[in-house]
Amino acid sequence: MKPIFKTVGVVGTGAMGQGIAQIAAQAGSLVKLYDVQAEAVAKASKNMHQQWDKLLEKNRFTAEQVTQFKANLHSASQLSDLNDCDLVIEAIVERLDIKQSFFAELEQIVQPSAVLVTNTSSLSVTAIASALKRPAQFAGYHFFNPVPLMKVVEVIAGLKTNPHVCASLTEYAKQMGHKAVNAQDTPGFIVNHAGRGYGTEALRIVSVGIADFATIDRILKDQAGFKLGPFELMDLTALDVSHPVMESIYKQYYEEPRYRPSVITAQRLAGGVLGKKVSDGFYKYENGIAQIPNEPPVPVVEEMPPVWVSTRAVRRVELLQLLKDLGAKIETGASPSAQALSIVAPLGFDITTVAIVERLDPARTIGIDFLIDDKLTKRRVLATNPATRVDMRKAAHALFARDGKAVSVIRDSGGFVTQRVVANIVNIACDICQQGICSPQDLETAVTLGLGYPMGPLAMGDLYGPTEILEVLFNVQTVYGDPRYRPSPWLRRRGAIGLSLTHVEQ
Q1: Which domains does the chain have, with CATH numbers?
Q2: Of 4, 271, 364, 456, which sits with the fewest C-beta atoms within 10 Å of its C-beta?
Q3: Residue 122: is its pLDDT beyond 90?
Q4: pTM metric for this prediction
């Protein structure tokens, strides 16, 4: 099959540019690689040749294919060498003024029919195109690093982009072995926009002293099934990449509270504590391996108190069965005895609020996060309140660890950790749908492939229950008084009437 774009220029020879050039050459296009630094082009070409040789050794490609790929890759010594390109993909520094200046110069070199695209991750495609005489031939084409492995690309139309251009880019993505998703020209597009609910909420949890980096990472991996914890992920992407995106999206949305960045990452960025690439981030790295602190040991408790479970606990029947399986002595009265450990399992509310509302002794009250079916998790999460006695905390920890499942104990928090992070992910995804930025299907595809979540955010909301997610948000907003937790109309309406979050009005 002949490539839609016969000759493709790739400007910028960083990891992103190399990845794009690689898959374009593999699609059969003649690729011209350009960088303002000539030595960078030579180095990038060498790296790509070596990469193809490795893939040959792994039998991913035949010798004939690799020979052809190498033949498809050419070096451009000056920008004018791109004059015959059908498509030029820019992957340079993330600054609006520089991109505008570059494309204005490039437009004068290429043929009028050439398609020009930017790989920007957060800048406005329309704003970049404003410097062009032919904005109809311009679009966003946002890949993810490492490009050959991250099989998704966002196709973004500016206000004046010709629909035919986006259709051609979508088809070309298929030829490169990628899935194209279509997005409106809004801050962060789909993936970076949808990703605000994960890292930013984890940073918020740290900022109010609920848990440390390692504990939060463990919880979200073991409870919700994320491949990487938020702080592991930020260390991997590096703060000089992720924090500017946080700030850019926040500012472009005129300080929408849902996207509020954290002073924690701003300070670390200023101090050069960027992540794995400098061996110092949220974790220290030795030989590329994160030095993660050990978990606190399970306490040894000689005499276990009886246990009383709140009548308002979520999944109460399941919780009672779990306690029975763990060998707890369960009280069944309307209220706990003076000796009992009181267990509450709220959605969104903090343990302090629940203890007061239910007239429980805070000193003997512990919360457990039961949003997710215990059988589906590898970790249980308990929360104390400021008055919880040490002996009660230790007893609860020891009890819930009896069957060998990991247990984390955190400080009081509206929505624990998983509830509020998952709820924020789902809520932001719902608001993306509400704004019409993309279809629910494209959202699910983009996030699953681009962020590596265990499932799409709408599927996540459906699994844990739109009504439950809605309750978490309402209650967390009550606890903290922060508008960042206000539910999107898409979620509020579907949650209220029991519809799937993927439901589209006819």
Answers
A1: 7-185 (3.40.50.720), 193-291 (1.10.1040.50), 307-410 (3.40.50.720)
A2: 271
A3: no
A4: 0.93
